[in-house]
Amino acid sequence: MKYYQMNGCGNAFAILDGRGEKLRLSAEAVRRIAKSANADQVVSLENSMRGDIFMRIWNNTGSEVAACGNVSRCVGWIMMRERNRDTIKIETEAGLLIATRHGNGDTMISVDMGSPLLKWEEIPLAERMDTRGIDVKIGPIDAPYLQLPGAVNMGNPHCVFFVDELDAVDVVGIGPLIEGHMMFPEKANVGFAQVLGRDCIRLRVWERDAGLTKACGTGACAAVVAGVRKGLLNRSCTVFVDGGDLHIDWREKDDHVIMTGPIELERQAEISAPASAPVFR
Ligand SMILES: N[C@H](CCC[C@H](N)C(=O)O)C(=O)O
């Protein structure tokens, strides 16, 4: 089967084209693939009745997840090249996504991530709360910048803090405390955003079940939505992440969030179907 090693702004992926195979990856196989590929997420491509492709996504710790913005852009690019089309419909557990490019050979790919879910029970949170600024305490650490983060679901749960100085934030120390906080029954991706202007932010994300990554697509979408709801940002924003930059547009006309950014194909290979736990050299 075809194997693609790709990244979106440094968010690293191992993508297996399982169409035509009975590919069923165990959590252990996912962890082994992710380790050997040094990937944040692992994806298997499957046939779809509703779209051009079905994308099954796992974090590198083995948990299956419904949404991943950056890999949606990579899979969109694979299918556009295969079908020689500028628009591709991707089916995921979170729903249908539309990926587009501006022309053949283009590696700037946009994905329509649909509408953000903003009700407390849709994030989900453990109790009723105003999701524009939630009350999540982490023990003795009551740093001033850890007040009232925004909560947004982009097909997956996000908690976004707005901080004055991102380089002063201990993302690796604080991220896991919020990720597993009892306020989030399904855990959460934890974003730390610094506003540089009403149309640009810098963002780092401690990802649920994957840790600190160089970029998080749904995290960038969630940060802009949370910033607009706090009155800090315009609906069209550039998000500077460690691995590059993404452009987010939370469209007024249909409430959809459009994410645009680069993809990179690092390696493509033919491999034998990984029944259990293959190791890629
Ligand atoms: N860790 C995330 C999934 C990957 C999201 C990220 N890589 C993106 O580009 O959106 C979660 O468990 O919800």
From TrEMBL:
Residues marked Could be important to modulate the pK values of the two catalytic cysteine residues (site): 158, 207
Main EC class the enzyme belongs to: isomerase
Catalysed transformations (reactions): (2S,6S)-2,6-diaminopimelate = meso-2,6-diaminopimelate
Enzyme Commission number(s) of this protein: 5.1.1.7
Source organism, top-level taxon: Bacteria
Residues given in the record as substrate binding sites: 11, 41, 59, 69-70, 156, 189, 207-208, 217-218
Active site: 68 (proton donor), 216 (proton acceptor)
Quaternary structure, from the entry: Homodimer.
Family named by the database record: Belongs to the diaminopimelate epimerase family.
MF GO annotations: diaminopimelate epimerase activity; heme binding; peroxidase activity
Pathway involvement of the protein, from the record: Amino-acid biosynthesis; L-lysine biosynthesis via DAP pathway; DL-2,6-diaminopimelate from LL-2,6-diaminopimelate: step 1/1
Known function: Catalyzes the stereoinversion of LL-2,6-diaminopimelate (L,L-DAP) to meso-diaminopimelate (meso-DAP), a precursor of L-lysine and an essential component of the bacterial peptidoglycan.
Cellular compartment(s): Cytoplasm
Any one Gene Ontology cellular component term annotated for this protein: cytosol
InterPro entries per record: DAP_epimerase_DapF, Haem_peroxidase
Occurrences of domain Plant heme peroxidase family profile (ranges): 6-200
Protein name: Diaminopimelate epimerase
GO annotation terms (biological process): lysine biosynthetic process via diaminopimelate; response to oxidative stress
UniProt keyword Isomerase present: yes
